[in-house]
Amino acid sequence: MRKVIIVDRIHMKTAYGGVLIVVTAQDPDHYHYLIDFGVDGGKNYSWTWILMKLKSIIPDDPENCVSLR
Predict the structure, then answer these.
(1) What DSSP assignment string belongs to 30-63?
(2) What's the pTM value of the predicted model, to 2 decimals?
(3) Using one digit for the tens of pLDDT, what is the confidence trace for 15-30?
C-alpha cells in the first residue's frame, strides 16, 4: 500500500473569510491522522508555507502519494 498524504482546504463562512488548510496521512488500516493545519487569509502564504514544509520532511520516494484536493 502506498503512503498517502492528503492536503485539503475548507472555505470558512465567517465575517473574516479565509481558507482552512488541513494535511492528513492515511495508515494501512485507512485511518486518517492530522499532520498540520493552517489558515490562509487569501494571500496564499499558508499554502506556500505548508507545501514547503511538507517537501522538507517527506522524502522523494515513489511509494509516497500526495493528493491535493
Answers:
(1) --EEEEEEEEE-SSSHHHHHHHHHHHHHS---TT
(2) 0.71
(3) 878 888 888 988 888 8
